[in-house]
Amino acid sequence: MRHILCLLMIISTSVYAKSEKSWVEPDPKSSRTEHEVRINGRNLEYLAIAGDTIVKNKDGKAQAQIFSTAYFRQGVRDKSKRPISFIFNGGPGSSSVWLHMGVFGPKWVKLPSDAENPGAPPYQLADNPHSLLDVTDLVFIDPVGTGYSKAVGDASGKDFWGVKKDAQVLADFIRTFISEHKRWNSPKYIGGESYGTTRAGALVKELQEGWGSIDLNGVILISAILDFQTGDFTPGNDLPFISFLPTYTATAWYHKALPSQTQLLPLPILLEQVREFALNTYSVALLKGSLLSQEERQTIAQQLHLYTGLDIDYLKRTRLRIDEFRFMKELLRDRGVAVGRLDSRYLGDEADDAGERFEADPSGYAIDGAYTALVNDYLDQQLIYRRDAEYQILSSEVFSNWQWTLGGNARSEGFINVTPFIAKGMRQNKDLKIFVGNGYYDLATPFFATELSFNHYDIDNTRVDMKYYEAGHMMYVHHESLKKLAEDLRAFYRK
Asked: Cα 214–219–225 angle (5° rounding)?
């Protein structure tokens, strides 16, 4: 009897706790601070608002409390001529800190430009002379489960952790935000990095389709992944071996690991050769599979050696198929280092020189500490936004629970691909323009994969700005690339 009573108490308590959740009122907080920054040689005054936006469901109940950091230029009289841009990163499970404090925002995490690990703090937070705040107001969004954003009421995080569900709640956030700030008639842009470009593609659909649509002026894609077939090394899927090859070449060229025949070529000329080889000879060879003769196999292996620097016998043992993680470890194995994934300019010294893959991404751990330290310090000390909670830079919980479908089931949908949403959005909105920023040394979202996506689905490429930078995934950690990226984006806004 005693055990039964205890069990009843546990059940009763859990039920009460579950029902109690619906009675918890959201606790939105915000801060407003005024600042000044010098951009492009001119002083600019701006208002910063760090705070929470309550997003409600169709029944009018609060379901999400989304944190954002917004910057508004002061003294703007006609907001119908002033663009507003909604910016986010990827993961999924990443906060917006990277684009916020790497390129777009008024503050900049200043890191070594030459792929050097900055080590331990203190780090340098500087005014960003390249910020885009001179041409657009900026809203940096942290999706649910990242930053300070969370589910509220009866909702849980898993209600928003999926391709479609995430896009829906961010579309609701944008609608709520532009209503609260009276920006319905302002030019509107969205921008994302990495998985954030997938999110942007899904958002084009959520915002522009149906009645009550929000037509966009532009979409910014930094280090894009739109079609996951181009990047998923699943057995039977040969497309990634093709789409990664030019980035393998660029990486080997950067580290002077190519045979002299190709190493001495200028990178743009070399990459054109590799693109041609990948689309024609190499793709056909992979398609033939076991029908490939020994002579053909030897010829392809020799050509791959010229374009990757990898040993011919090793290439033949891989069946002419070079996995990204194998490449990162194999390229400079004789030097005892692995190259980075996010940015293959970075090198990592590792304990196991005989392993199949690196122990950690040197281009990830080189920059993570600086961004983590400085965003927390900045929000607390300069924007005066304080919470008794950890600012989630990157959430493994979000990533591990992500639903990789667009509403159906994984079998029927196959690989996630949002490129058709962008193509349709451009067909239905004659003013929609696209900016794409690619890093030559990005082994997470290779530029050739992005090119392949944009060469399909009848995208109007006359409205696409395709740009390239001498850096990796976060190309803005390279100072010259940051400057060029900012200039290219500024020109994009002014079109």
From this structure: 125
Q: Determine what percent of the chain falls in helix, strand and coil, rounding each to the nearest 5.
A: 45, 20, 35
Length of the chain as a residue count = 495
Pick the last residue of a domain from 363, 385, 405: 363
In a domain, 19, yes or no: no
Residue from 174, 167, 164, 161 nearest 212 by CA: 174
Count other C-beta atoms under 10 Å from residue 412's C-beta: 7
Same domain for 274 and 354: yes
Q: Look at residue 13 and tell me if it is in a domain.
A: no
Buried b / exposed e along 246-261 (16+ C-beta atoms within 10 A) = bbbbbbbbbbebbeee
Amino acid 20: pLDDT: 45
Q: Looking at the 3D structure of the chain, how many domains does it have?
A: 2
Q: What is the pLDDT of residue 24?
A: 62
In this structure, the strands spanning 84-88 and 137-141 are parallel
> Of the candidates 340, 363, 386, which is a domain's last residue?
363
| C-alpha span between 282 and 301 (Å, rounded) | 10
The SS3 assignment for 91 reads coil
| 440 and 447 Cβ atoms separated by less than 8 Å | yes
CATH code at position 442: 3.40.50.1820
- How many whole angstroms separate alpha carbon 138 and alpha carbon 49? 10
**Statement to judge: residues 45 and 193 lie in one domain:** yes
Q: Give the bridge partners for 109, in sequence order.
A: 125
Tokens of 229: 């077939």
Assess whether 206 and 338 both reside in one domain: no
Do both 84 and 211 map to the same domain?
yes
CA distance 183 to 181: 6
pLDDT at position 16, please?
A: 38
Q: Are strands 337-339 and 347-349 parallel, antiparallel or unpaired?
A: antiparallel
Q: How far apart are CA 448 and CA 225, in angstroms?
A: 11
Closest CA to 132 of 173, 157, 100, 169: 100
Residue range of the domain that includes 351: 234-363
- 207 and 111, same structural domain? yes
Q: Which of 132, 131, 138, 130 is nearest to 186 (CA)?
A: 138
Q: Does residue 155 share a domain with residue 210?
A: yes
For the chain of 495 residues, list the mean pLDDT of each consecutive stretch of 10.
37 40 70 96 96 93 96 95 97 97 97 92 96 98 97 92 96 97 97 98 95 94 96 93 98 98 97 97 95 96 98 96 96 95 95 84 93 96 91 95 78 82 96 98 98 93 97 96 97 96
Q: What is the pLDDT of residue 355?
A: 83
155 in any annotated domain: yes
Residues 371, 450 within the same domain: yes
What pLDDT, on the 0 to 100 scale, is given for residue 413?
Answer: 67
Q: Are residues 52 and 167 in the same domain?
A: yes
